[in-house]
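Workshop exercise sheet. Pairs work together: one partner reads the sequence aloud, the other fills in the structure field after running the prediction. Swap roles for the next sheet.
Pair: D.N. / O.F.
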Amino acid sequence: MNKENIVKKNLDFQRIIKNNKPYKYKDYVLYVEKNNDNNYHFGFSVGKKIGKAVIRNKIKRQLKSIVSKKDYQNGFNCIIIVGSNILNKTYLEMEKNLLEVLTKLDLIKEKRDDQI
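Structure field:
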């Protein structure tokens, strides 16, 4: 995942969370903000209840890896907040659930037949 596609500033996190409604799906809470930018941005939040810093950073790396596997529509910011039950999931379950919710929110580009 490119650095320019990551939300890092606390003000951006607070704005996105305050002004948009949450989408809850299994172990994730997503806040999606539409904008007129030609890029997409993701932000990841893993709370202290999940575990120590090593565990939290591992989960963030896994989420970035999952997100970087797909192509996305342009013009949105997305904050992904992880629930405490994520520790009981394998990487494949995390991937399946996250891609499922991103597809439901229509953020993933659809592959056309001529691109395959």
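Discussion prompt: The radius of gyration is 14 Å. What would you look at next?
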